[in-house]
Amino acid sequence: HAFAAPSFVDSGRTSEGMRLHPIRQKGWDTWAKAEILWKLSLNESPLVHFIAAPTRPLARLSSWLAWRGKRIIHTIASMPKPELAYRDCVWAHRVVVLSRASLTRALKEGIPSERLVHIPPAIAQPKTPRPELVEELRNHFGLSGRFVLTFPGDLGQDRGAELVIEALAKSKARRSTTLVIATRNKGPASFRRWPLLREMAHRKGVDLRLVGEVQHIHALIAASDLIVFAAQSCHAKVDHPLVLLEAMHLGRPVLITEGSPAHELAEEGGALGTAFDANALSQAIDQMHRDEGLRERWAKAGVQCAQRRTVEAMAQAYEEVYRALEEEA
Q1: How do 272-274 and 254-257 pair as beta strands?
Q2: Alpha helices, DSSP H only, in the chain?
Q3: pLDDT digits (tens, 9 = 90+) for 68-92
């Protein structure tokens, strides 16, 4: 049995003997734990796999399930906040981390190395959007004839969006560039940033399209000339954001700032990396804007990086984790 955020799974979906359940309640309140225990009581499977943010209540639940004879796997999609140590919020027989940064921090904060497994995320090759859909989207958002720079980050974690606006305001490419901010709604804090971002962009002369959550995200990626991810944390996302892997698969050049685990994609050669600094980011944007050949080279490098991560290899790595725990049980 696997439990994950509702956005990851459909209730009751089954694949090769695994049943996937969404965690419906916010956090790990009494009802959330009761729902999980009820579902587990109906099945004798020795393995329980949590795909969720690490929390103290989840660690206590995992410990209790282990006492009842279950073998626990916990996949940590993104690192916990700095003030929450791994040893205080994670309990599992195997802890799967998605980034080298998460692996290093988990070791430093008390997770035994024999329980840690590093499995980088991978996705299947997205379908190339139909050209007419891409053109329709460009017309809908007023992007025709513009150099399109898309920021697919969160608004609730740090000031990445503000940094991109500041960098573009300093850029020589500002007058010919439209900045598109595409972001999922993750609560009131995100919405409160919208008018502030619009006001900042207007004040600095940046042409902004704050589109929020887009139904055809692959078409938006295909309509973009450059994908920029500026962040100092990937908390509540994925350490290696899947939207960046999608952009790489679709042949879009990607620019990533230092400071978050996402920068590891640049370290692997799949994206251009730069400092989390407005001047440095502005210079990188200018480079990409004026040099089409450079964009093509980074687009090709991104495709190669994304293709090196196969879903089959990721699945095999998890299969080995399951098999090892079954043997231990």
Answers
A1: parallel
A2: 30-41, 56-67, 86-89, 100-108, 131-140, 160-170, 188-204, 217-223, 242-249, 264-267, 278-290, 292-308, 311-328
A3: 888 999 999 888 888 899 999 999 9
